[in-house]
Design brief:
0% of the residues lie in helices and 48% in strands. The protein has 124 residues and is mainly β.
Length: 124
């Protein structure tokens, strides 16, 4: 059973930075895709950024598209570097994973594995 565990969330002032981390447990193969999504209070979950096992990245056209996703080669760990945070970035950030390939960001609910999320709060 694949388990995803996020960390790195917290409270920050507008303009600040955070780096989220997500590690996968219970898997012995390289996950084909890992990504980040978020859900703000009262809103639907939105994407996001994804990265496949070859390091190819895909970003949403807006919102989270400002951030940078990265993944060490051959590791089931993924990071999200968030700079220039704004109050509208306040949300629970979720790590997701899939194999063998990434779903399009718009198909976020097709991802098989999800973490429990880490809270990011940006104050203005």
């Amino acid at each position: 059973q694949v388990q995803l565990v996020e960390s790195g969330g917290g409270s920050v002032q507008a303009g600040g930075s955070l780096r989220l981390s997500c590690a996968a447990f219970g898997v012995i193969y390289s996950l084909g895709c890992m990504g980040w999504f978020r859900q703000a209070p009262g809103k639907e979950r939105e994407g996001g950024a994804t990265i496949d096992s070859d390091g190819r990245t895909t970003y949403a056209d807006s919102g989270m598209g400002r951030f940078t996703i990265s993944r060490p080669s051959a590791k089931n760990t993924v990071y999200l570097q968030m700079n220039g945070l704004k109050s509208e970035d306040t949300a629970i950030y979720y790590c997701a994973a899939e194999s063998p390939v990434c779903w399009p960001i718009s198909e976020r609910y097709e991802y098989s594995y999800w973490g429990r999320g880490t809270q990011v709060a940006v104050s203005s």
